[in-house]
Design brief:
single chain; mainly alpha; Penicillin binding protein transpeptidase fold; two-stranded parallel sheet; 2 strands
Length: 247
Amino acid sequence: MPSLTSVARSRDRSGTAPKRRSLLARLLRRAGLWLFLLLCVLPPLVLFAWRHLPPPATPLMLLRLLEGEGLDYRWRPMGRISPDLARAVIASEDNLFCEHLGFDLTALRSEVERALAGERPRGASTLTQQTAKNLFLWPGRDLARKLLEAWLAPQLELILGKQRILELYLNIAELGPGIYGAEAASQAWFDKPASDLSPAEAARLAVILPAPRDRSPHGPYADDRGRVIQQRVGQLGPLLDCVGPTS
């Protein structure tokens, strides 16, 4: 005949497993709810705000600030940024910006395949994806960030539209150590407002974008690459229609 102690232990063990499963289920439901809020609810709410308001800062700006860099960020509406800079950025970074829906499926598939094969991703983000990264994500080229970019990019296209995406990108892109956006970069590199940039100066600023902490708009490389970007601007023609008419 089992003792009272053994019966009590048996009851404790039989009740512990269901309690643990119930606790795990609650934790998973809670984690799923938070994940849903972070991925499906928060981004649209933030984007509706940024549809009309300038972001006060971005995660990258705050990260660089914590690393000891300065923060030169001066928001300017599109009407106070040279359209030559918008064209140069599209020609340099994303030739199909005015036509795609946020991301290039072929380029994205290639990036995922490279990451799964253990190779270093090349980047190849659209301007929409880069804007999503700047607004919400962290620097780097890991697979998780690329997938989040692809998730966020169509939301930017739907809620913001091309003109606003371009306006945001031109204002928050890193264009030198502690330098963010067209106005700060134009003042820092050329001592003039972004509205007064010449086509050549705009092209040389676009040269910085792939490596803003290592490149300058001055020097032989910037001159050569800037001329290539200017030539590409002339070749794109209707692919630049979302920027507006040539001034």
